[in-house]
Design brief:
One of its GO terms (molecular function) is transmembrane transporter activity. Keywords: ATP-binding, Nucleotide-binding, Transport. With about 230 residues, the chain is α/β, with parallel strands linked by helices. It has seven helices and ten strands. The strands form two sheets. A six-stranded mixed β-sheet has the order 6-7-8-3-9-10, with helices on both faces. Strands 2-1-4-5 form a four-stranded antiparallel β-sheet, with helices on one face. The longest helix has 18 residues. The protein is globular. About 40% of the residues are buried.
Length: about 230
């Protein structure tokens, strides 16, 4: 069953077009990789689908509702509950411990502090970093930080996770370990994933790959000029 649909999505920055009429669907529990060369519009597409950016034209429907018509507050609420967002550098809050970072989405959604911490500890344990619960990001390696960031993206058990180059700041071994753990978790809970990457080994974890070139879907699937 289709969960998320983008139709004829366009987006420009000033006079520079970033997306030129993108069509995309994501099914329930499906992992879709969006690949292509740098500057082709991958991150812009993900940000539009997640409601972080508003598309200039086109339609983005989640569970058959046009979220492009929603207010910023409504889209922010969606990202705290049914969407999870994961960035390349994790973007953990440096002043908070690992457990506090992971608990943050639950606290923002109205959970009690004790309940949120308990859930955070469960997810930190799933990603093998429970021993870091009371450490701040500055005391962690890059791989440890990203495991905490994945736990934070999944702690609300979202319907869709948007992952923007989630392993781009890691070496190959750490990257594949982090992504492998994430894929196992989302498969278990039936979460859909939109995964932006330029790395073929990472894209191979997806069920399906969409290649962009110059802001449009590349029908050749190569991402380079024929």
């Amino acid at each position: 069953m289709t969960l998320l649909t983008g139709t004829a999505i366009t987006k420009s920055y000033g006079t520079t077009p970033a997306l030129r009429g993108i069509d995309l669907t994501v099914g329930e529990g499906e992992i879709v990789a969006v690949t292509g060369p740098s500057g082709c519009g991958k991150s812009t597409l993900l940000h539009c689908l997640a409601g972080i950016l508003r598309a200039d034209a086109g339609e983005i429907r989640y569970r058959d509702q046009d979220i492009g018509l929603w207010s910023e507050a409504a889209r922010s609420r969606l990202r705290r509950t049914e969407f999870g967002v994961l960035f390349q550098f994790g973007q953990l809050v440096p002043e908070l411990t690992a457990a506090e970072n992971v608990a943050l989405p639950l606290l923002l959604a109205g959970s009690g502090r004790r309940e949120a911490r308990a859930a955070a500890l469960v997810w930190l344990d799933r990603f093998g970093v429970a021993d870091l619960a009371d450490k701040r990001p500055g005391a962690m390696s890059g791989g440890e930080q990203q495991r905490c960031a994945v736990a934070r993206a999944l702690v609300t058990e979202p319907r869709v996770v948007f992952a923007d180059e989630p392993t781009g700041a890691l070496d190959q071994l750490n990257g594949e370990q982090v992504l492998g753990a994430m894929v196992q978790a989302v498969r278990e809970q039936g979460t859909s994933v939109v995964l932006v990457t330029h790395e073929a080994p990472i894209a191979a974890y997806a069920d399906r790959e969409i290649v962009l070139r110059d802001g449009a879907v590349d029908p050749t699937g190569l991402g380079v000029a024929p």
